[in-house]
Amino acid sequence: xxxxxxxxxxxxxxxxxxxxxxxxxxxxxxxxxxxxxxxxxxxxxxxxxxxxxxxxxxxxxxxxxxxxxxxxxxxxxxxxxxxxxxxxxx
Length: 90
Description:
Elements: E1 2-9, H1 14-31, E2 34-41, E3 47-55, H2 59-68, H3 70-73, E4 77-84
Antiparallel strand pairs: 1-3, 1-4, 2-3
């Protein structure tokens, strides 16, 4: 099942994001459950959050993936939402 992980960065935490980006990308590759992902951007075009589409068995698996993401472990996010998602186009 597909889940959208929608995360908002804490204000002024761009350095936290940059410092943990390689570990985050390695986690994505190692887990093999991410179908698409990318940063959310603020009005100035700076990274301000994340959108990650996960293909996992259930909500519990999505929650586990999200909590083990190096960004989450580094305390980057002020808000995290996980929503079931249905792909219709693309």
